[in-house]
Amino acid sequence: MSSDKRVVVISGGSRGLGQALVQDRLDAGDIVATFSRSSNSFIEQLREADPNGERFHWEAIEGTDFDGVRGFAMTVLRRYKRIDALINNAGVGIEGLLTMTSERDIHQALTLNLESVIVLTRACLKAMIAERRGSIVNISSVNALRGHKGLAVYSATKAALLGFTRSLASEVGPQGVTVNAIAPGFFESDMVGHLTDAQRARIIRRTPMRAMCTTQDIVDSVRFLLSTRAITGQTLAVDGGFTC
Ligand SMILES: NC(=O)c1ccc[n+]([C@@H]2O[C@H](COP(=O)([O-])OP(=O)(O)OC[C@H]3O[C@@H](n4cnc5c(N)ncnc54)[C@H](OP(=O)(O)O)[C@@H]3O)[C@@H](O)[C@H]2O)c1
């Protein structure tokens, strides 16, 4: 299956921000390939509307299984012959005092939020370099930029993504590939579903624009970064001024 449409890979496209990104790219006319551990009604509706996978491909992949992640990228390439953009979105929001956090949870967060991103990027990058064109957007977090009690491990994974973004941008810029990061402020999704009203109110009080972000704010920013060749190696904080 080959086409002139742009092929966009999005990790974790079943829920939350990933779901909004998948829908936005499909609405824009792109071919979208995504994975998550499990399917849901959003994924099943898209698969039923496109049974031959002409514009939408989903697989059940555990992001910490690197063979699975590499295999996913290879399937996308075999099926659509190219990868034009990659949005590294899947992540786990590990929370808790460091002394109370198990090494198993630390390993899980580092593996999914950092190592898996590097493995998937490496697998997709080869196709981009061959075409001398591509865009990579890494979804980091405001917690990469500001300290927050209980989020040391999560912050470490998300801050590492910013270093990865800058260095990879300088490595692959000459081959026509941009690499940027978005550091979103808190937005409503399953990941922050546990926040109490008091915690939400505190975040809003500390945000100059006096509102939490929306997934649409992040989607709009991703769309902008995919649209330009002039910006690379940068981190865009989309946080209503939380980090200013
Ligand atoms: N929500 C916020 O306030 C916020 C703020 C800043 C940054 N972020 C970042 O934004 C990104 C999206 O967050 P979100 O709030 O939209 O998250 P979410 O609602 O929890 O959705 C996460 C997505 O990733 C998939 N996923 C999770 N663990 C996976 C695994 N081990 N293997 C494969 N897929 C996996 C989930 O599907 P399955 O569960 O079926 O696997 C789902 O599709 C994350 O990188 C997060 O760190 C979020």
Could you explain how this protein is built, in words?
By secondary structure, the protein is α/β, with parallel strands linked by helices. The protein has one domain (7-237): 3-Layer(aba) Sandwich (Rossmann fold), CATH 3.40.50.720. It has seven helices and seven strands; from the N terminus they run βαβαβαβαβαβααβ. It has helices at residues 16-27, 41-49, 66-80, 103-131, 152-172, 197-205, 215-227; strands at residues 7-11, 31-36, 56-60, 85-88, 134-139, 177-184, 235-238. The protein has a seven-stranded parallel beta sheet, sandwiched between helices. It is globular. The termini are far apart. The chain binds NADP nicotinamide-adenine-dinucleotide phosphate. Residues 12-18, 36-38, 61-64, 89-93, 112, 139, 141, 184, 186-187, 189-192 line the site of NADP nicotinamide-adenine-dinucleotide phosphate.
Give the CATH architecture. Answer: 3-Layer(aba) Sandwich
Mean of all residue-level pLDDT scores: 96
Helix content estimate: 40-55%
Written as H for each helix and E for each strand, in order along the chain, the element string is EHEHEHEHEHEHHE
List the main descriptive attributes of the protein structure presented here.
244 residues, alpha/beta, Rossmann fold, binds NADP nicotinamide-adenine-dinucleotide phosphate
Helices and strands, with pairings:
Layout: E1 7-11, H1 16-27, E2 31-36, H2 41-49, E3 56-60, H3 66-80, E4 85-88, H4 103-131, E5 134-139, H5 152-172, E6 177-184, H6 197-205, H7 215-227, E7 235-238
Bound molecules: NADP nicotinamide-adenine-dinucleotide phosphate (NAP).
NADP nicotinamide-adenine-dinucleotide phosphate binds next to helix 1.
